[in-house]
Amino acid sequence: MSDMLVKLYELPAIAPVLQRMTAQGIAIRHPQPGDQRAVLSWVKRHFGKGWLPECELAFRTVPAACLIAVRDQTLLGFACYDCTAKNFFGPTGVVESAHGSGIGTALLLTALDRMKQAGYGYAIIGGVGPTAFYAKTVGAVVIEGSSPGIYTEPLTGSREVR
Ligand SMILES: CC(C)(COP(=O)(O)OP(=O)(O)OC[C@H]1O[C@@H](n2cnc3c(N)ncnc32)[C@H](O)[C@@H]1OP(=O)(O)O)[C@@H](O)C(=O)NCCC(=O)NCCS
């Protein structure tokens, strides 16, 4: 899985994307510290525990380095940034029943806008699965030779030196 590069100085307009969310009663916002448990257990339930370390890290800043999509107190999606590494977007996910409603795009554009406001010129989408989604929504291009890139196998236990 390769990384992708996004030009933050050529992002598409965010207003119509957020208007589409408002029309569906969906809020895109940072989670509050008190949302942490609910967000982490939701991510684990829908996407497994592999993304939990990055999601936990997102709550180490205020506001959290994460955005969530919420309708009527129900979580529909999430997106982290500056968690895998500085300047990296992800992980992100939208509940399967809500795919295709524009939520993934709204989370992505809002997070990239936050990164732009923080002073980055480019963003890196880490270890991409759906390259077509990122190419279509924000013009991201694959970074050649970036697989496995910064990713290493996590340590699995505490082995002592004998
Ligand atoms: C990728 C993901 C976040 C997209 O969320 P979404 O809310 O369904 O996306 P949107 O509704 O904003 O889609 C925007 C456009 O991208 C397209 N698109 C969405 N997912 C796509 C995919 N996996 N591959 C190609 N195109 C995709 C949509 O068809 C839509 O096109 P349209 O504007 O012509 O209708 C979602 O599919 C998901 O959670 N996938 C599983 C987790 C995952 O792969 N995360 C990314 C890890 S890098």
How does this model look, in words?
- It is globular and about 60 Å long.
- The chain has a single domain (4-142), classed as Gcn5-related N-acetyltransferase (GNAT) (Aminopeptidase), CATH 3.40.630.
- The longest helix has 15 residues, at 103-117.
- The chain is of the alpha+beta class.
- It has a seven-stranded mixed β-sheet with strand order 2-3-4-5-6-1-7, sandwiched between helices.
- It has helices at residues 15-23, 36-47, 52-58, 103-117, 131-138, and strands at 4-7, 27-29, 66-71, 74-81, 88-94, 122-125, 141-142.
- The structure holds coenzyme A.
- Coenzyme A binds at residues 90-94, 99-105, 128-130, 132-133, 136-137.
- Coenzyme A binds next to strand 5, helix 4 and helix 5.
